[in-house]
Amino acid sequence: MKVLLVEDNERVTQFVVKGLQEAGHTADHAANGRDGMFLAASEPYDVIIMDRMLPGEIDGLAIIEALRKSGKRTPILILSALSEVDERIRGLRAGGDDYLTKPFAFGELLARIDALTRRAQGENAQTKLEVADLRVDLLTRKVTRGDRSLTLQPREFKLLEYLMRHADQVVTRTMLLENVWDYHFDPQTNVVDVHISKLRQKIDADFERPLLRTVRNAGYTLTSHD
Amino acid sequence: MKFLRSSALTLAVGYIGLGLAALGLFAAPLWYAWRVTIQEGRNEILQSDALRLTEVFRREGAHGLVSYINTRVGMQIAGERQLLLADPALNVMAGNLAAWPATVPADPGTYTVKLDLGNGITDVAVVHATLPGGYHLLVGRDTARYAPLERRFWYALAGAVAILSVLGTVGGILIRRALMARIDGIRRTVSAIIQGDLSHRLPTHQSGDELNTLSQTINGMLDQIEQLIHGIRNVSNSIAHDLRTPLAELRSRLEELALTRPSTEQTFAEIDAAVADVDRVIRIFNALLRLSEIDSGLRRSGFVPVDLAAVAAAAVDFYQPAAELRGSSLTLESSGPAPIRGDPVLLAQALGNLIDNAVKYTPDQGTIAVAVRRGADAGSVEIVVADSGPGIPENEKPKAVERFYRGDASRCTPGVGLGLSLVDAVARLHGSELRLEDNHPGLRARIVLTQDTPQVTRAARANSEQGGFQHEPVYP
What we know:
- Chain A is of the alpha/beta class.
- Chain A has helices at about 10-20, 35-40, 60-70, 85-95, 105-120, 155-165, 175-180, 190-205, and strands at about 1-5, 25-30, 45-50, 75-80, 100, 130, 135, 140-145, 150, 170, 210-215, 220.
- Chain A has 2 domains: about 1-120, 3-Layer(aba) Sandwich (Rossmann fold); about 130-220, Arc Repressor Mutant, subunit A.
- Chain A contains 8 helices and 12 strands.
- In chain A, strands 2-1-3-4-5 form a 5-stranded parallel beta sheet, sandwiched between helices.
- In chain A, strand 11 and strand 12 form a beta hairpin.
- In chain A, about 40% of the residues are buried.
- Chain B is an alpha+beta fold.
- Chain B folds into 3 domains: about 1-150, Beta-Lactamase, CATH 3.30.450; about 210-290, Signal transduction histidine kinase, dimerisation/phosphotransfer (DHp) domain (Helix Hairpins), CATH 1.10.287; about 300-465, Histidine kinase-like ATPase, C-terminal domain (Heat Shock Protein 90), CATH 3.30.565.10.
- In chain B, about 55% of the residues lie in helices and about 15% in strands.
- In chain B, strands 2-1-5-4-3 form a 5-stranded antiparallel beta sheet, covered by helices on one side. In chain B, strands 7-9-10-12-11 form a 5-stranded mixed beta sheet. In chain B, strands 6-8 form a two-stranded antiparallel sheet.
- In chain B, strand 11 and strand 12 (about 445-450) form a beta hairpin.
- Chains A and B meet through helix 4, strand 5 and helix 8 of A and helix 5, helix 6 and helix 7 of B.
């Protein structure tokens, strides 16, 4: 995956570029708005990570707006120290696809850009999701593993659906909070973990191979691979 | 020079000027009316006198008139009345003037002319009448006898002007003195406050004059500012204290790591712990930023119609597993939709914090009851989160919503001590407040929200009605 990072802070740049390379991605970097604009407009990227406050005349939001106006649909993740809800909304309105506040954990960033690129490859009109022998029918809302039918609460179903749609990817607790519960705040306690362990009880407890796994320092992943 | 610039002088000069103008406006018509009345009266007397003499002439002829005039002149007090009868050639026949005065016009009528009456030339009002046979009759009166009266009028007027000016000036100086004394008091207090001592207050007294009212208002403002500054000082101290703990841990952890250089595995474990420490600091910062964001009141522009019952249902649903884990029951009581105007994100967070607190502080197998009801007032909605935990002692309740407050009961539970202050801030943003009541046993947290928040400006409302952007999901 080819990633463009537009960010003026050297330390953050080093940290992100190194992390992306270790995760097997190619990363280009621009340290100011003008270079960022030029690279974003001329090179094909799978995802762009954009800082909001940049040196030079052009700030992150202006670049995003210009790209969107010129018809570029590359997924963009906004990275910013501006954490207010309204700032977040401004970022998303300008054409950003996701918003991550500094300081951030690299795991969170990686999980989010994975989710963005996956979505760009086609938010499908799938009605059936499948991971190993776990199957979810979105129309009948039936969940089966192997030949056993599982009974899930509506919230558990929504949680599982999100995990299935992002199978083999890491999803963080914040991503789950935002997308499953639509909660854009820190609920202080580890309620998400409790939900996950309840779901795990239902889909994994009686089976030999666990599918829902905890990823240390990042979140969870639903995968059939080892 | 200072006096010239003072507003008291302007005031005094203004009042003196106004007084003089009023005096002038009062005196001028009086003067005019007086002049006219006197002149007319005098002329009337002269004319009727002339008429009477003419009557005598008609009845008794020229000789009769001559003797009549002579009699009159003989009886008259000197100089009071001028009488003169002349033949057609203007030769004096009788009267108290030596010759027919040349200054009197030839045509009959009433005039004021200059005559020499023996003691200099004076203004004399005369009636010149022609009698049958071409005789001329002159009846006159010296106007100089009114001059002293006129003079006295002008003297009195000048005296009034002088008194007014003096009184005005003295009054102005006195007012300025009194005013400057009080303004000086205010200025001294304000200077002391500028120096940093916020405990000073403007001097006030019993009288309810404008300056006193102003001083009281300013004192009220100072109270508010002092309270805010005090609050900020407290918060900064608390922040410093609460951040120091994780930072100190982090520091010692890293220092120890650098010193001992333990095995790789242990190093990684230590690094993970260090990251967790940093995350704690970040959490506190985020919570504080959120609080200041709410306190600034800016979020009110994002108010949209919200169904509190739905928000509560989602929150209860979210925290249900956490309650189950502790064997506590978490129930929701609601009677249909409860629509209000508000910020759905913040309301969800506030309700989440209340339930989270209840779950955390209620011992295992406790009961937590969330209720959303219509309030007593029309259109109001009441949210209650009641638990069977230890509650908050009566004397600690006011402190419970303060930032970084942590009750004795919560010392050993995770959290940063900002939960209830956030709930209170959200409630205040929605024109309400968080009330903490006793649940016998346990805590009852209650918020009453109204459907229509009066503080919402019309512009903000129009803005939010164009589309409640809070509902925009991050991922479509």
